[in-house]
Design a protein that fits this description.
Blueprint (H helix, E strand, L loop, with lengths): L8 H13 L2 H14 L3 H4 L7 E8 L2 E6 L5 E6 L14 H6 L8 E7 L5 E8 L6 H12 L7 E6 L9 E10 H13 L6 E6 L2 E2 L16 H72 L3 H11 L5 E7 L4 E8 L5 H6 L4 E6 L4 E2 L6 E9 L17
Parallel strand pairs: 1-4, 4-8
Antiparallel strand pairs: 1-2, 2-3, 5-7, 6-7, 8-9, 10-11, 11-14, 12-14, 13-14
């Protein structure tokens, strides 16, 4: 039974029609059937399709009960078969025995009428009528049948046949109240409530419920509440699992960021050490090149000592950073000192600074001579293989 308010009922019906028209119900039914076939036979009944329809029929003051889709009669009893001590009819024991193994939550009873007691008409309606199909069908009762709306119970089935574009086919099923009310009253007198009133079609039912919505009994569905609770628990567990996964990812990300920061610090330290090593290597190389390219002071003194004659002695000997050499001293023949230093490999460009003056005390000539240290030239760089020298 639809328990939604009238304002929500068209929307619910639209959703229900869309669901039935989609391929999902068929796929889920097939999938559920395949899964049930994998279970042991005793377990298959626990995973049934939900509603378990049983069909009631009345003929010649006798009631029969069958399971939908089966021709075997499960129970048979007469009108007024059981009556309590206070005169109230109760459900027959054969009915209780036949339905003893059926889950009361899944049990559905449908009263079947012979096709001759109902009137069926095919309707072609615009698509806009689907939202209020039952109400539109009520307007068609007066036009399609010889009865007034208050005289009948009616139901609508759709779709039943192809229809032109912009329209759809539906079937109107009508049964008079005079026919149906006595049967419903007899069932109520026996304490039997039916969930639907339908027409017989082979061993099953047509699929149209003539029972008005307000007369459909409301059944407690604890399993639905349990399923909703389980579904909510599953959603909650899924959210918790997702939150836990996100939390773990966040922890892993934080740990990775910490490791990256530590590795970045180590990399900076390594870079600083590499730079320091390069600086030290450059300084050491510079000193080595400077030492290689600079004439040793000891060698320079040895060169000057060997070339200057014994009659010459120096009062001052200096070498600056530019390689400028200064000689200040006294000699017997100062003018010949240039010839002495001319062939030197370490001293070049020798020249007197100022004039040569005699020293009356020693009887020698005082001089001041300048020269340059002959620095060795660095070897030429080897050109790269396959390349041309710049």
């Amino acid at each position: 039974m639809i328990t939604a308010t009238p304002s929500l009922r068209p929307w619910v019906e639209r959703v229900r029609r869309g669901w039935r028209a989609s391929p999902l119900p068929g796929f889920l039914g097939w999938w559920g059937g395949e899964l049930r076939e994998l279970l042991p036979p005793r377990w298959r009944g626990w995973f049934g399709s939900g509603a378990d329809w049983h069909l009631l029929q009345h003929a010649d003051a006798q009631w029969t009960l069958r399971r939908s889709g089966h021709a075997d009669v499960l129970a048979r009893w007469e009108d007024g078969a059981m009556m309590a001590a206070d005169g109230v009819h109760v459900a027959p024991a054969v009915l209780d025995d036949a339905l003893g193994r059926v889950d009361r939550e899944d049990l559905r009873l449908a009263l079947l009428l012979p096709p001759a007691l109902a009137l069926r008409r095919t309707l072609t309606l615009p698509l806009a009528a689907r939202d209020n199909l039952l109400q539109v069908a009520g307007f068609e009762v007066d036009r399609q049948t010889p009865f007034q709306l208050a005289q009948v119970y009616y139901a609508v089935r759709e779709p039943v046949a192809p229809a032109p574009p912009g329209r759809f086919g539906a079937e109107l099923v009508v049964a008079t109240r005079d026919t149906l009310d006595p049967l419903l009253a007899r069932l109520r007198a026996q304490g039997i409530e039916v969930d639907a009133v339908d027409l017989m079609l082979g061993d099953g039912r047509l699929g149209a419920n003539l029972l008005p919505p307000q007369q459909v009994p409301r059944r407690a569905r604890p399993r639905r509440r349990l399923n909703l609770m389980l579904a909510a628990a599953c959603v909650l567990l899924a959210l918790l699992m997702l939150g836990e996964w996100l939390h773990n990812r966040q922890l892993a990300l934080t740990q990775m960021q910490t490791e990256v920061a530590a590795m970045r610090g180590e990399a900076q330290q390594v870079a600083a050490l590499r730079q320091q090593l390069q600086d030290n290597a450059g300084a050491a190389g510079f000193l080595a090149r400077r030492k290689h390219d600079t004439v040793a002071m000891l060698g320079l003194l040895q060169e000057v000592t060997e070339r200057l004659p014994d009659s010459t002695w120096l009062e001052r000997f200096s070498v600056d950073n530019t390689g400028q050499v200064g000689f200040q001293g006294q000699s017997q023949q100062a003018a010949k000192l240039l010839d002495v230093l001319k062939d030197s490999k370490l001293i070049t460009d020798a020249s007197f600074q100022g004039s040569i003056q005699p020293d009356p005390t020693t009887g020698k000539e005082r001089f001041y001579l300048t020269a340059r240290v002959n620095q060795p030239k660095p070897p030429p760089a080897n050109p790269a293989p396959g390349g041309s020298a710049p």
